[in-house]
Automatic annotation (TrEMBL):
It catalyses: phosphoethanolamine + CTP + H(+) = CDP-ethanolamine + diphosphate. Pathway: Phospholipid metabolism; phosphatidylethanolamine biosynthesis; phosphatidylethanolamine from ethanolamine: step 2/3; Lipid metabolism. This is Ethanolamine-phosphate cytidylyltransferase. The lineage of its organism: Eukaryota, Viridiplantae, Streptophyta, Embryophyta, Tracheophyta. Residues 334-348 have a biased composition (Basic and acidic residues). Residues 2-123, 193-285 form the Cytidyltransferase-like domain. It comes from Aegilops tauschii subsp. strangulata (Goatgrass). GO terms for molecular function: ethanolamine-phosphate cytidylyltransferase activity. It is an enzyme of class 2 (transferase).
Length: 356
């Protein structure tokens, strides 16, 4: 599953050299070594290829760095170094997946992005499923506040005794700057605007952003607040808080700028302020009931004749991702229990690693 922690790892890796080649592990290899993947290989290829720090992508990469694959990297791709984070990457037998690269002196380490992991995000979704079935409305609101604030505590999973980590992400201005583009629109740029939740950033988001960017010179993306999403999509949304969602969108190569906490209604003043030429929306989106109303968020750009609906290339929404977790609940629960143990060990023994 792709998230902003992966994007930050790719950013750090790219800073170590002149070109970044990323191996995307096959579905079978992930299943054998970590448990069932949340997103299939074709979607993960779209996601990784859209990260602005990535120059090339290798599909069906092995989970462990084998001698044959390492030689292929050195000879066919002219790789100088193989990169991984400071968190251990172990095979089921307990051995280091990067041992050969380390022994060859061709390994470099980057700093893990704290506060997020696939295990953490899957845990949030599993927790939502449990809370929805056993809790009242007050507890729903409490859970939402924990997601939105980026704080939380260890929640005990009654029945198994294992905990699920709520977001410990600590947003800093430096991280936002690292993900941001330094360029602004030119005086004659055609600025395209698209907005949404962009929760659990996925291949469907990437593809609609790609199409939107192709309609102009500068793509401005509005990211709705946690409170707006919760009020329109239910108390367990969003899964990722505003700053987490903003980083995921900023990492996308098709995005030039984001509005962090964009308004639900697009006003004429906002269109003028940002010099927006075109407002677009995909045909695959959640909560489109407002389209039946006379007054809805896109009323102003529609009246101005600058609104366009784009045919979404992929039929994927955030709910699609959540349904994948829910439909295979037991498998992901077992995966998380195993991974939580290794993450707990990492956090208990971790030391400061220089990096950014």
């Amino acid at each position: 599953m792709m998230h902003y922690g992966h994007c930050n790892a790719l950013r750090q890796a790219r800073a170590l050299g002149d070109q970044l080649v990323v191996g995307v592990v096959s579905d079978d290899e992930i299943t054998a070594n970590k448990g069932p993947p949340v997103t299939p290989l074709n979607e993960r290829m779209v996601m990784v290829g859209a990260v602005k720090w990535v120059d090339d992508v290798i599909p069906d990469a092995p989970y462990a760095i084998t001698e044959d694959f390492m030689n292929k990297l050195f000879t066919e791709y002219n790789i100088d170094y193989i990169i991984h984070g400071d968190d251990p990457c172990l095979l089921p037998d307990g051995t280091d997946a990067y041992a050969l690269a380390k022994n060859a002196g061709r390994y470099k380490q980057i700093k893990r992005t704290e506060g997020v992991s696939t295990t953490d995000i899957v845990g949030r979704m599993l927790l939502c499923v449990r809370e929805r079935s056993v809790s009242d409305r007050h507890n729903h609101s409490s859970l939402q506040r924990q997601f939105s604030s980026g704080h939380g505590q260890k929640i005990d999973d009654s029945g198994s005794g294992s905990g699920t980590r709520i977001s410990h992400f600590l947003p800093t201005s430096r991280r936002i700057v690292q993900f941001s583009n330094s360029r602004g629109p030119g005086p004659d740029s055609r600025i395209v605007y698209i907005d949404g939740a962009f929760d659990l950033f996925h291949a469907g988001h990437v593809e609609i952003l790609r199409l939107a960017r192709g309609l102009g010179d500068f793509l401005l993306v509005g990211i709705h607040t946690d409170q707006t999403i919760s009020s329109t999509r239910g108390p367990h949304r969003p899964i990722m808080n505003l700053h987490e969602r903003s980083l995921s969108v900023l990492a996308c190569r098709y995005v030039d700028e984001v509005i962090i906490g964009a308004p639900w209604d697009i006003s004429k003043d906002m269109i003028t302020t940002f010099n927006i030429s075109l407002v677009v929306q995909g045909t695959i989106a959640e909560n489109m009931d407002f389209a039946k109303d006379e007054s809805h968020p896109y009323a102003v750009p529609m009246d101005m004749g600058i609104f366009r609906r784009l045919e979404s290339p992929l039929d994927i929404t955030t709910s699609t991702i959540i349904r994948r977790i829910v439909s295979n609940h037991e498998a992901y629960q077992k995966r998380n229990e195993k991974k939580e143990a290794s993450e707990k060990k990492y956090y208990e023994s971790k030391n400061f690693v220089n990096g950014e």
